[in-house]
Design goal:
The chain has about 375 residues and is an alpha/beta fold. A hairpin with a 2-residue loop joins strand 7 and strand 8. The structure holds nicotinamide-adenine-dinucleotide and zinc ion (ZN). Nicotinamide-adenine-dinucleotide binds next to helix 2, helix 4 and helix 5.
């Protein structure tokens, strides 16, 4: 088991990474003993893994796990309300503990339910997708979508612990695994050369990626995010570096109406784009640029993008929600393991990056 602290003063908590941790969760923390636990999960996750989590049905809970549908379109007020109703039915009190077992959607909505129920009850997050292990479970951002905008309603409510058990990944579709892997690669590029190398050395397409190696990649990426969150809990500055690859990534998701790419795949393309802009500015040497390109490629194929309109992509970039005073910040790598934030990237530079991405696509076909 690897333990990574999230140093948030009074809210300090551990991230535990290790195969086989989820089945023994109640034994991991003294403070959980004698506390009433209520599990929130999804039917898809529970049918695959509920049997391993016998504690979830035992005396302490008395109630069956609360199962709500996951997937982005269920990250809604309706799902939140259903969870609150079940908390009331279960008699959950202020000293109870919510355990969220699922991907980023379950974590975000169950965490927000915990943040708002009785003005906040403790919660533990057990992420079951690679993306949620290295990203959404860490940092305390919880919330739901508004019908008109993603993640519009939410809070910061730190969990008491994160328990990342790679055994969940045994049932995760390969495309979802790769999606999380692009986020791990992002962490390597922005702050950890040895993690970057580990991703280069993982099996091509991540076929047969060994559990111990996955575990150590999860731990390294978690450490990067935990350190950044500890320095900037409310996303006032430093935390923005986690958006490496996301400015273009979000634009690709938006112009394809969130249907073509998984979030991670769009970030994979976005990493390539950010690296191309950085190379164009002379921040990134050709060798480092090529290393980023081949590392992205190594993780696996992504849906194509060369048929998309660059005008639409540029338009989506300019509407980026992180824009301030009309300036869209780009996180640019200047070597492997270091990034800078720049808000003076021009339309011409983005256009050139899009051309480089499309050219790369042609080469790799
Ligand atoms: N809070 C944050 O800081 C933060 C950060 C990044 C992303 N997010 C959010 O996370 C969400 C995306 O998370 P996600 O990619 O985990 O999506 P998700 O929760 O929708 O899960 C993806 C799919 O995988 C299935 N699944 C989950 N675990 C499984 C398993 N072990 N085996 C088989 N199938 C499994 C789910 O049922 C779902 O169909 C988005 O809503 C995003 O906004 C939040
Ligand atoms: Zn992301």
């Amino acid at each position: 088991m690897i333990e990574i602290p999230v140093e948030l003063g009074a809210h300090r908590y551990p991230i535990l990474v290790g195969r086989g941790l989820a089945p023994v969760l109640p034994d991991l923390f003294d403070w959980l003993r004698d506390r009433r636990m209520v599990v929130v999960s999804s039917p898809r996750v529970w049918t695959r893994h509920g049997d391993r989590l016998g504690w979830a049905r035992r005396a302490a809970t008395r109630a069956e796990p609360i199962l709500v549908p996951d997937g982005e379109r269920h990250k809604t007020r309706a799902t939140l309300a259903a969870i609150h109703d079940r908390f009331v039915d279960a008699g959950l009190r202020r000293d109870g503990v919510v355990i969220a077992v699922g991907g980023g959607v379950i974590g975000d909505v169950a965490g927000f339910a915990a943040a708002t129920y009785m003005r906040g009850v403790s919660w533990v997050v057990v992420p079951t997708t690679l993306l949620s292990m290295v990203d959404s479970a860490i940092g305390g951002k919880v919330g739901i979508n508004h019908p008109k905008a993603k993640n519009m309603i939410g809070a910061i409510h730190q969990p008491r612990a994160v328990v990342s058990d790679p055994a969940f990944l045994d049932t995760l579709p390969l495309r979802e695994v790769r999606g999380g892997a692009y986020e791990i690669l992002k962490c390597g590029i922005l702050g950890d050369r040895s993690l970057f190398r580990a991703m280069q050395e993982a099996p091509a397409g991540l076929l047969g990626w060994r559990s111990t190696e996955v575990g150590s990649a999860i731990a390294s990426a978690s450490r990067i995010k935990a350190e950044i969150v500890a320095k900037d809990e409310h996303e006032e500055g430093l935390r923005r570096v986690l958006n490496l690859g996301h400015t273009l990534g979000h634009a690709l998701e938006a112009v394809t109406h969130y249907r073509r790419f998984t979030h991670g795949e769009a970030v994979g393309w976005g990493l390539l784009g950010a690296a191309a802009i950085a190379r164009g500015r002379g921040l990134l040497k050709d060798t480092a640029f090529e290393a980023v390109v081949s590392a992205v490629e190594h993780i696996g194929p992504r849906p194509l993008l060369s048929d998309l309109s660059s005008a639409e992509i540029l338009d989506a970039v300019s509407r980026d929600k992180k824009a301030r005073a009309g300036k869209v910040p780009f996180i640019l790598p200047f070597g492997i393991g270091r990034v800078v934030i720049r808000d003076d990237v021009t339309t011409a530079e983005v256009r050139r990056a899009l051309r480089a991405m499309a050219a790369h696509e042609a080469r790799s076909r």
